[in-house]
Amino acid sequence: MGVAGVFFGVLVGWIIGTQQGTARPAAPAAAVQSQAPAGGPAPSAAPALDESRASAMKLTAQQNPTDAVTRVQLANMYFDAGRFQESADWYEQALKIHPRDVDASTDLGVSLYYTNRPDEALAQFEHSLKVSPQHTKTLLNKGIVLAFGKRDLKAAAAEWEKVVTLAPNSPEGQAARRALEGIASAHAGGGATSNQ
User: Fold this and answer.
1) pTM of the predicted protein model
2) Where are the alpha helices (DSSP H) in the chain?
3) For residue 195, is it within any domain?
């Protein structure tokens, strides 16, 4: 339990800010310092959903049953608004059309985690890793779910070490390094527990 306070802000800042790729800058890692709720960390102060734009996009999706792009855009809008069940639904629809879209698959996993379904999130990340075994965004998020959703710091650290090895200077690599440093600090101070 004590580990959440050690590096929660670092990881939540990254996970919130980068779920839909490079279209938006990452939120500052130090901006979020609260404890994780029972289901895991969730963004605070989510922007309101543009309902008229969402309605127009839903109509476009209905009229184009093979349009995965619009479905992913809708999912991203719902994700950004903190409406994770709806974002999960739209990511699932997009993946039915393009099951090998690793970014949508990983974003679905994060949405599942935010709806208190860590086991389903981990299963979705495994799908992502079958498509792209070195997808650093997936590996980082898998570590986050293992750490916060499953309280397994040893397994989380293993995923983060992969990220640092694969892309040490990327935003994912830097976030993974900070998470590993947080675990090391917690262990040095006796404040963290992990599954062995």
Assistant:
1) 0.78
2) 3-17, 51-63, 68-80, 84-97, 102-114, 118-131, 136-144, 153-166, 171-189
3) no
